[in-house]
Amino acid sequence: MLVPTIDPFDRDPEAMTDPFAHFQEWMAEAEKSEPSDPNAMTVVSTTLDGKPSARTILLKGVDPRGFVFYTNKQSRKAGELAANANIFLLFFWKSLGRQIRIEGTVEHVTDAEADAYYASRPRVSRLGAWASDQSRPLESRAELERRLAEYEAKYPGEDIPRPPHWSGYRVLPSYFEFWQNMPFRLHDRTIYEALPDGGWTSGKLFP
Q1: Tens digit of each residue's pLDDT, the chain (207 residues)
Q2: 3 in a domain, yes or no?
Q3: Is residue 12 one of the residues assigned to a domain?
Q4: 3-class SS string, the chain
Q5: Residue 62 structural domain
Q6: CATH number at residue 100
Q7: Could you tell me if residue 175 is inside a domain?
Q8: Structural domain tally of the chain?
Q9: Residue 153 CA to chain centroid, in angstroms?
Q10: Which residues are annotated as catalytic?
Q11: Are strands 98-108 and 86-93 parallel, antiparallel or unpaired?
Q12: pTM of the model
């Protein structure tokens, strides 16, 4: 019989009051075991006619305020989030048999936060933020390469300003579900729900 992974948050019921600490614990373990991009997450928004719209992107920051990612504000997902700020995040780590579901709403990060993260990106990635009309039709790969060369000529050094259409979002969560694979599909599911006073209540769900 398989021996299930023991979640330290189950060993200490008092610890089950902070979903962010729980997330950080699981993320730290994923960083040790996942072969690439342990910070990859599926981001789900809704189209203007209410259909789900999903894509996988990288988490770039997390703290007690929320979960941060960056994108072109003229992209499809940005347009959807402008119309409906509700969002859903999904992390899945197959090597650990774990997933985390997060529900919440988004807000924009500050210009200072966006500037700081943009400046930390590789030079070609910063130029790419200028060259790419994200989510819009592209006639050929050559057109993207031509636009990239155009901005390489315009900004030959490291001093590349952040495009006004490129920034980030912070997901403000209201619900977490931590799912742990267990033998015979008797999985463990821990949930956290936000309270009006700013705290959290926690509990379990049947598998």
Answers
A1: 334 455 655 655 555 789 999 999 999 999 999 889 999 999 999 998 999 999 999 999 999 999 999 999 999 999 999 999 999 999 999 999 999 999 999 999 999 999 999 999 999 999 999 999 888 899 999 999 999 999 999 999 999 999 999 999 999 999 999 999 999 999 999 999 999 988 999 999 999
A2: no
A3: no
A4: CCCCCCCHHHHCHHHCCCHHHHHHHHHHHHHHHCCCCCCEEEEEEECCCCCEEEEEEECCEEECCEEEEEEECCCHHHHHHHHCCEEEEEEEECCCCEEEEEEEEEEECCHHHHHHHHHHCCHHHHHHHHHCCCCCCCCCHHHHHHHHHHHHHHCCCCCCCCCCCEEEEEEEEEEEEEEECCHHHCCEEEEEEECCCCCEEEEEECC
A5: 17-205
A6: 2.30.110.10
A7: yes
A8: 1
A9: 33
A10: 185
A11: antiparallel
A12: 0.89
Domain-located, residue 107? yes
